[in-house]
Amino acid sequence: MTDRDTALAIAGLDKSFGRTQVLGGITLNVAPGERVALLGHNGAGKSTLIKMILGLIRPGAGSIRVAGNAPGSAAARAATAYLPEQVAFHRSLTGREQLTMFARLAGEHPKTVAPLLERVGLALAADGRIGTYSKGMRQRLGLAQALLGRRRVALLDEPTSGLDPISRHDLYAVIDEMAANGTALLIASHALTELEARTDRIAIMAKGRLVADDSLGNLARAAALPTRIRLTAREGAAEAVQAELGGRRVNGRAVELDCTTEQKMAQLARISGLGEAVRDVEMVPPSLEDLYRHYCGENRQ
Amino acid sequence: MITRIMAIAATEFRIQTRNRWLASATVLMTLFALALTFAGSAPTGSLGVDLLTVSVASMTTLAVYLAPFLALMIAFDAIAGEAERGTLGLTLTYPLSRGEMLLGKFAAHLAVLAIAIALGLGSAGVAAWLAGGAGPASVQALARLIATAILLGACFLALGYVASALSGSGAGAAGLAVALWLVLVVLYDLGLLGALVMDAGGGFTKHVFPWLLALNPADAFRLWNVSAAQEVALVSGMAGAGEALPGWAAPLSLLLWPVLALALARTVFERVEP
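The joint structure predicted for all components is written out below.
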């Protein structure tokens, strides 16, 4: 890929703080209009990576190009939108004043501010002091500043934290709109939830390394996680059921089985063959959480 | 570039008026200046000068302490406080250089300081004029005092940014600012005084001491005001040191300090990783 195709290109990135290696051999590309979820536990190196893309921390080795520019250069900063995890503003300014300052810094006309405040649902609170805002409102203001101008790359660090479900819905819409406008989005998160599942690609970091980088479908296929079947046996029949089907006894009356997608129908046929001995059957497909844990090297619980 | 500096300056000025720094600095300046003017009005008759002249001499001494103090109080939070609150990181991801950010803040802070000093010292001047009269010379001395006090404030604003960029926290920056004030405004003079006593009128007193005075912005401020107006020098008793120096020494020092300190603040600020 050339710089023209990749809004964000990261190759062979290393970084150590003292003797501790925080990032090792990270290679990741994001194309214009592509939404990539960057997942990892706290301390996996996501925030360090984002700060490097912003040019706030220098890489130890490797290269980063933001829309073809070195990170931290004026051109790269003009092309980048950023929503910090703990978004903070000055308490004594109003939302409109704060956003107007950012608009001026970004080289946008102050006229663009009012529609943006409306877009994120802050039109009514625009002239109130930020000190009186709720966390969700500050997050919306943070989102509004990330929408200023037409940016090539957007870095959203935990954008859903502090948002209520309705705000989440608005956030999805904003993200899709940015992607439709050709912005490359990198969305950092410590969990694989509904939002991350809606992205085009999922990159998972563990201990400073990139352990997965693919679409959700491909990741699920490659992981081949089993579906879990939970049976509730008739009183006293649990032992017989376990003897017939295998699996684990969970408590006095329940038995759990793991099976692959191909085995599922055959297992169900065997279960119905047991007739009266089974009172109830519950099927649990692998969740996003299970998939995420699998790639982080943790077992399903 | 100018747009970005103006954007930072406008925001910063708004914050300073909202957190009442502008109001409290002005009130503080006015109260002290008025108190000094009327408490110090006794010697007018015996020295044969008008009340405003005495007042300017007293206010010169006041401004040496108060202008640096106010400047440091405004400046110490500029970088460390923003880093601590988490607002610095986001602002620096915008296409804004650190020098531009610093200049924007400096412009706003200097405006706050200039308003406080001009209103505070000016109102005392008006009061002295109403109570005891003033001549063209003493009005000129007052104008010079106000302008040089603003310059002195500018030095210490820039020094406050250095302290702010050096410390990781607002509390650390406040401590460093107090230390700066103590050393440059109080201890430096005490040290020189000690050296003078030891030297007992030798070569140090004649050739080195005046230059050391001019080197310190607070003393340069005093020298400039004193050597420029004979009546003020008469009242403040500081004429000796001023005569040993060429006339440009103190003004040059006071004009160079803010520029050099701002350059230093920018260098230190470049190294801050938010």
